[in-house]
Amino acid sequence: MKYLSNVQSVLFVCMGNICRSPSAEAVFSQKASAQGLSLKIDSAGTVGAHAKEKPDHRAQKVGVERGYSFEGLTARKVKVDDFDDFDLILAMDNDNIENLKKFAPAHLQHKISLFLEFAKNHEETEVPDPYYGGVNGFRFVLDLVEDASDGLLAQLK
Known about the structure:
Layout: E1 9-14, H1 20-34, E2 40-45, H2 57-65, H3 82-85, E3 88-91, H4 94-103, E4 112-114, H5 135-156
Parallel strand pairs: 1-2, 1-3, 3-4
């Protein structure tokens, strides 16, 4: 696990930026704020197919059920500037790690990690894509994201 000193900004990344990464952004933003941390937090996708769309309605439904806000979140594609602008870039799975590393300047690739490296209560290493499944997949994504968010916040404090 990475040593986290002076992290002021976090970018969450999945493929389309409509399910997993906006859920991570919503959860982590609320948890960080509740702990009094002022961080720059955003999410993006490695593909731009859903650019400017709101998060998937199922992700929003299960997130709102647990008290998270998706207000103002819209999908966007990762851009080269993100590697300069964010201290930590957390991918939801290994495919997105590979895509990020192909795109990231070599001297900034050290910022890229799997988000679930910070999870304490789950053995999964990747957040599964719930897009083609049912609502329970979105609930499981939230379970994983909440766990990893708590673990990351514990390291940042």
